[in-house]
Amino acid sequence: MRYGLGIDLGGTFVKLASFTEDGVLLDKWQIPTVTENAGKQILPDIAASVEAYFREKGWKREDIIGIGMGVPGAVDKNGIVDQCDNLGWPTQNVRETFSRMTGLPVLVCNDANAAALGESWKGGGSGFESMVLVTLGTGVGGGIILNGKPLLGINGSAGEIGHMVIRKDEPIYCSCGKRGCAEQYCSATGIVRLTKAQLEGTSQESVLRKMQDFTCKDVFDAAEEGDVIAVQTLEEVYDCLGQLLANICCVVNPQAIVLGGGVSKAGSPLLEGAKWYFERYVYHAASAQFALAQLGNDAGVYGAFKLVMDLPA
Amino acid sequence: MRYGLGIDLGGTFVKLASFTEDGVLLDKWQIPTVTENAGKQILPDIAASVEAYFREKGWKREDIIGIGMGVPGAVDKNGIVDQCDNLGWPTQNVRETFSRMTGLPVLVCNDANAAALGESWKGGGSGFESMVLVTLGTGVGGGIILNGKPLLGINGSAGEIGHMVIRKDEPIYCSCGKRGCAEQYCSATGIVRLTKAQLEGTSQESVLRKMQDFTCKDVFDAAEEGDVIAVQTLEEVYDCLGQLLANICCVVNPQAIVLGGGVSKAGSPLLEGAKWYFERYVYHAASAQFALAQLGNDAGVYGAFKLVMDLPA
To answer: What is the C-alpha to C-alpha distance for residues A8 and A23, in angstroms, rounded to an integer?
Structure first.
């Protein structure tokens, strides 16, 4: 039996997981991401943790297929990671560097693509020939899986669907510097922003009005209770999300759309709401099935391992 | 030396072209498309024309690599063409049928994908690793080429970008039954429609006002002469086109966008106009180079032949 690792490198924690060669998850652990000093300590820290784990398990180099890693930035096909502000990193070849540190084959991809690959392999997208994972979190990200592989794009920016412009007359700027991006309406941040705008725009009663600060989850909870402001805001969110998803489908015509990220914990109201608007915006011959992501925070380590699982022995 | 054929099956004419095995176009000809009687005569007519051409050239079956064909409808990976109203066809396996008729290997794909493959191989998209052909004609179509192959999508509807919704508040319906599709603004039909709306909305002088009926080309010509109505309309067209192209780029992040179809004959004003708005809508890490299509009506036969060119000997 041989083994491999999947690593999900985030701005706060590095998640690590070990897998058997046939894809069974064995162990999961995490270490803090030390972003100080241009993130110079990040890869050595991971290498040390990996080394310690291998020693503990009694695994030798020849027992290991390789290490897959998802990173929060654009990655080209050679493993060069673009300047990554989340980690403090300048542009560098992470594949080469980490492979030299560990003496093992390393494959690197963008974290959204890794999560998409994980969901496609073992999660909400399994069984579909092609799928788009739409991650509704602080921002809106995505990953497109065609024939079992992530679509990277020429600059590693395929699947940056949060920045599709769907409301060209939006007066407020998105973090990317444009206006009217899907992320401004469908992310957790966007949902709170829209709710605040609704509250300010009317004198309608709302449980949210009494809260000092409310979260996206509070908005979903209030809507569940019939709160008019929350219900109206979420209708607008579903409308925007439906349009975004339909627009993705007329470009790549995937078999399935999988909704993930923190916002997707809202579950079936979100799924049903988005689907209702989606049907109104989608080109009839490019429709898709809908599913919820299933792997939660583990999607990234699953997908990262899947990258190396298919390496030749 | 072996040879192959590329066929572009349209609703009025079937265009045929012969190529050497290394991709040099030898002859081009066309025959009418007889759509009567559920289009039953179409494939036998093509087969007879092909047979006559082979006889004239003295080519035997073993001299022929195969025949590629682009058809105006959705095609699955087995060569089954969805019900095709333009041709009067019910759903049928065109690859199998035409291969039996001719005794030759046949590959079939959607005509927009064939044109995109042609432009990618020998036209405006040559030299780019990935590209999207955006065909601005009576409607707006498209084809996406990744690693030298058309992206088909699960129902053969990838690249149906004309039906991306970019103006959700549009009151007028698109031919597809939705409202606010890019095709309603960026097609030749859409440009004439927008111009008429501009003319009706103001009393502004315009050379177009005096014309009984004007075409999309008249609008570009008038704008060239400084006609205010035409200039204003085209600004709106470029705005819509820029948004459409930017939205495609954040999904697939292609290296190049190639503009084709009748409207693209407007040339550099169109290219520059679309690019200006594109830069305002595109996600910074997903930008693309712009080019004009170069093969005109031959793009389809080039791409159709390219399908079979790579068949094993």
So the answer is: 16
Residues of A in contact with B288 (CB under 8 A): 154
DSSP state of A90: P
Return the percent helix, strand and coil in chain B, to nearest 5.
45, 25, 35
Q: Do A153 and B178 touch (CB under 8 A)?
A: no
Q: Which ipTM score applies to this complex?
A: 0.93
Q: Tell me how far apart the alpha carbons of residues A157 and A141 are, in angstroms, rounded to a whole number.
A: 10
| Sequence-ordered list of residues with C-beta below 8 angstroms from that of A120, at least 6 positions apart, any chain | A126, A128, A131, A133, A145, A148, A258, A303
Task: Note which residues in 113-172 of chain A have CB less than 8 A from chain B.
Answer: 129-130, 144, 146, 151-161, 163-168
Taking CB atoms and an 8 Å limit, are A246 and B165 in contact across chains? yes
Percent of chain A with pLDDT over 90: 93
Residue B260, token pair as written in the block: 């084709």
Please check whether residue B231 is in contact with residue B198, taking contact to mean a CB–CB distance below 8 angstroms: no
* A217 and A224 Cβ atoms separated by less than 8 Å: no
Chain A residues with CB under 8 Å of B255 CB are 154
pLDDT by residue for chain A (313 residues), tens digit each?
A: 999 999 999 999 999 999 999 999 999 999 999 999 999 999 999 999 999 999 999 999 999 999 999 999 888 888 999 888 889 999 999 999 999 999 999 999 999 999 999 999 999 999 999 999 999 999 999 999 999 999 999 988 999 999 999 999 999 999 999 999 999 999 999 999 999 999 999 999 999 999 989 999 999 999 999 999 999 999 999 999 999 999 999 999 999 999 999 999 999 999 999 999 999 999 999 999 999 999 999 999 999 999 999 887 6
Q: What is the largest CA-CA distance in chain A?
A: 68
Among residues B170, B158, B180, which one has the least CA distance to residue B248? B158
Chain B residues 67-106 with a CB less than 8 Å from chain A: 74, 82
pTM: 0.94
* Cα angle: A175, vertex A178, A181; to 5 degrees: 80
Q: What rounded mean pLDDT belongs to chain A? A: 95
Q: Which helix (H) or strand (E) holds A83?
A: none
Name the H helices within A173-298: 183-186, 188-201, 216-224, 228-252, 268-281
Q: What is the distance between the alpha carbons of residues A286 and A153, in angstroms, rounded to a whole number?
A: 21
Q: Which residue do the tokens 């444009």 mark? A: A178
> What does A115-174 look like in DSSP terms, one character per residue?
HHHHHHHHSTTTT-SEEEEEEESSSEEEEEEETTEE---TTS-TT-GGG-B--TT--SBP
